[in-house]
């Protein structure tokens, strides 16, 4: 992990991030403009993982407008050559550590078939000894086009001092 740098994204990273997201199924594809906006407006709650100057991981998030104590993690993508090394988990550590002290919960949605997605969030919670809950959120009927349902994962409260110790 020493050769991986975790940092806030820059607008100049948006093209590489878009390429990473669009080549990592089953993530939903969005316009390149959206990633430019994320890098510009939401860089404090987004993180890239860089190896040899190449972006190999990305996590997008925002502070929930409904729950200002909650970081909502939206998309996470790790290049398949770098998977199962804890990079996604570290991306959440970094994103949460960039937030204000009052932000002590993490939420994300996961599709039931995406075992790696569920596991990295479970690993994040258990490393911090934080509560982990999962409940149905969006049904296939709501999401349309045969999209798998999305369950809501909620983690916390997190003891943020542990982020520095364990990161
Ligand atoms: C989901 C994703 C971001 C995880 O990235 P990652 O850096 O490999 O994640 P981590 O290494 O932190 O954790 C992955 C965990 O899942 C486990 N895992 C991987 N595939 C698994 C599977 N099919 N079944 C069960 N567990 C699995 C790994 O063993 C690891 O757990 P461990 O460290 O306890 O062994 C990556 O797989 C990815 O980019 N997938 C495609 C895009 C995607 O689905 N994004 C998530 C939805 S937003």
Q: Uncertain regions: pLDDT < 50 for 5+ in a row?
A: none
* Outline: globular
SSE string, helices as H and strands as E: EHHEEEHEHEHEH
Helix tally?
6
The total domain count is 1
What ions, cofactors and ligands are bound?
Answer: coenzyme A
Helical residue percent band: 25-40%
> CATH superfamily assignment?
Gcn5-related N-acetyltransferase (GNAT)
Euclidean distance between termini CA atoms: 11 Å
The value of Rg in angstroms is 15 Å
Main sheet strand line-up: 1-2-3-4-5-7-6
Could you name the CATH class? Alpha Beta
* CATH A-level architecture: 3-Layer(aba) Sandwich
Beta strand %: 25-35%
Instruction: Report the count of strand segments.
Output: 7
Let me know the largest β-sheet.
Answer: 7 strands, mixed
Structural class of the helices, strands and pairings? alpha+beta
Question: How would you portray this structure in words?
Answer:
- The protein has 167 residues and is α+β, with helices and mostly antiparallel strands.
- The chain has a single domain, classed as 3-Layer(aba) Sandwich (Aminopeptidase).
- The protein contains six helices and seven strands, in the order βααβββαβαβαβα.
- The chain has helices at residues 14-22, 32-41, 87-97, 115-127, 140-143, 161-166; strands at 4-7, 47-51, 54-63, 70-78, 105-110, 132-138, 150-155.
- Helix 1 crosses helix 2 and helix 3 (87-97) packs across helix 4.
- The mean pLDDT is 95.
- The site of coenzyme A has 21 residues, from strand 4, helix 3 and helix 4.
